[in-house]
From TrEMBL:
SUPFAM superfamilies: MIT domain (SSF116846)
Cellular localization per UniProt: Endosome membrane; Late endosome membrane; Midbody
Organism in which the protein naturally occurs: Phyllostomus discolor (pale spear-nosed bat)
Gene transcribed to yield this protein: MITD1
Pfam families recorded: MIT, MIT_C
InterPro entries listed in its UniProt record: MIT_dom, MIT_dom_sf, MIT_domain_contain_protein1, MITD1_C, MITD1_C_sf, MITD1_N
Annotated protein name in UniProt: MIT domain-containing protein 1
A Gene Ontology BP annotation from the UniProt entry: midbody abscission
Length: 220
């Protein structure tokens, strides 16, 4: 059944907005994010095409979709080759007091359905919002372990007095290095302040996030 004109207009606007962002990211060489926006925008245009009755508009839409699909495919091939060659590197600079950099915001792009194992090395998980004091830290991590087990996730813990590197590795080949490790958030002002629960709203310390891709990931 064809959609109403109002429904098609809203989808057309949404597609245009997403694809405009894709082109901007593409021009900034932020190819991974650009690819996601191209794919989302193409899906929206396909929905518009399904509901379009005018043959001329259909022809124009098909040309647009074809062009965006060609560009998305070229970007995908480029990123795949970069990963294959071990050359992929993306850097994110987090400014002092910046917000919008929760763990979910940083990691979600790389945690796809193929990920089965994650390795985290961090020598300084010890502040109040991460765990305070050795015994409290051990108890807290044990509680997390039990909670994850109830959801079918196995958490294995190893302690080291000599570790210095900070990195997170996924078994799909992605590796993330954060200058300050996981402790890049500032202490919340109170339990009732914005950012206490929503880490996207919590101010950060200045740090740098480097993202790499390796074809194979070694276990710790």
């Amino acid at each position: 059944m064809a959609k109403s004109g109002r429904g098609l207009d809203s989808e057309s606007v949404a597609a245009a907005t997403v694809l405009k962002r894709a082109v901007e990211l593409d021009s900034e060489s932020r190819y991974q994010q650009a690819l996601v926006c191209y794919q989302e925008g193409i899906d929206l245009l396909l929905q518009v095409l399904k509901g379009t009755q005018d043959d001329t508009k259909k022809c124009n839409l098909r040309k647009k979709i074809s062009g965006y699909m060609d560009r998305a495919e070229n970007i995908k091939k480029y990123l795949d080759q970069e990963k294959e060659d071990g050359k992929y590197h993306k850097q994110i600079k987090i400014e002092e007091n910046a917000t919008g950099f929760s763990y979910e915001s940083l990691f979600q792009e790389y945690l796809n359905e193929t990920v089965r194992e994650v390795w985290v090395e961090d020598p300084y998980i010890r502040h109040t919002h991460q765990g305070s004091g050795k015994q409290q830290q051990i108890c807290g991590l044990q509680e997390i372990k039990e909670s994850l087990r109830n959801h079918g996730v196995l958490l294995e813990l190893e302690y080291s007095s000599s570790i210095h590197d900070r990195e997170i590795r996924f078994d799909n080949g992605w590796m993330i290095k954060i200058g300050r490790g996981l402790d890049y958030f500032k202490k919340p002002q109170s339990r009732f302040s914005l950012g206490y629960c929503d880490f996207d709203l919590r101010p950060c310390h200045e740090t740098t996030v480097d993202i790499f891709h390796k074809k194979h990931t070694k276990k710790i």
